[in-house]
Design goal:
By secondary structure, this protein is an alpha/beta fold. Helix content is about 40%, strand content about 25%. Pathway: Amino-acid biosynthesis; L-arginine biosynthesis; N(2)-acetyl-L-ornithine from L-glutamate: step 2/4.
Length: about 250
């Protein structure tokens, strides 16, 4: 589908919902572009787990998801974070639809490693027909990173990975991974551009590490899947670090 921009909102989602953020989305819509939002909610989930005295266990950047953790994750994403985001959009005059895995099984997935990670999943399929219908009717789909297996079991899926797969399936022209830093840093410099071919070297040299790793892995997968460029940035109106398949020197 042409002229699609997928945005993954991360960190404290409400921090992204600034006047400049909505101005940028309005500008894109005036240009005829269609916008899809994928939201995370890790901050809010951890906060709720601590309140309920449920231990937070992170392994390789993924939240180990027990049956209890899964219930809290569902409650926070569908009951707290998504309504907050959709309400902000509606207040700014946008037509939006909040979606989760139970809406026509929009995200079908499978367990990543049930024994070690519990109900953590990966995306196998995205219902692009539903998304395309909403985009054609000028709605902005706002998707929670939850999936369902073919047998109806709920999955907790990394929001970067969901955004990447949605962008890939919709053949998006751009994917924005919003984070709390303005891009990828090397030798105290924020990189303007980064080729997918350079990423393995930067990982090996441990220039890229921690929370940036899953973002760059998602970026590489999206580019390989046909997305033209991926932006890692902390503000929608700033390009940040642009990841593409070009051969560039960094």
């Amino acid at each position: 589908m042409k002229k699609v921009i997928v945005i993954k909102m991360g960190g404290v989602a409400s921090d992204n919902l600034t006047e400049a953020f909505f101005k940028q989305i309005s500008h894109w819509q005036k240009e005829g572009k269609k916008v899809v939002i994928v939201h995370g909610g890790g901050h809010y989930i951890s906060e709720m787990m601590q309140r309920l005295n449920v231990p937070v266990v992170i392994q390789d950047g993924l939240r180990v998801t027990t049956a209890e953790t899964l219930k809290i994750t569902q409650m926070v994403l569908i009951g707290q974070v998504q309504p907050m985001i959709t309400a902000h959009f509606q207040q700014e005059g946008f037509s939006v639809v909040g979606l989760n895995a139970s809406c026509g099984q929009i995200i079908t997935g499978s367990f990543l490693d049930k024994n070690t990670l519990g109900a953590v999943g990966e995306v196998n399929q995205v219902d692009t027909e539903l998304l395309e219908h909403l985009l054609k009717t000028k709605h902005i789909p706002i998707i929670a990173p939850l999936g369902l297996t073919k047998t109806g079991e709920w999955l907790n899926i990394n929001a970067d990975h969901v955004a990447c797969k949605v962008a890939e399936e919709l053949k998006a022209e751009k994917l924005y991974l919003l984070t709390d830093v303005p891009g990828v840093k090397k030798e105290n410099q924020w990189l303007k551009e980064l080729s997918t071919s350079e990423i393995p070297k930067l990982k090996k040299e441990k220039i890229i590490k921690g929370g940036m790793l899953p973002k760059l892995e998602s970026a590489v997968a999206a580019i390989k899947g046909g997305v033209k460029e991926v932006h890692i940035t902390n503000q929608l109106q700033h390009a940040g670090t642009i990841i593409n398949a070009k051969e560039v020197f960094v």
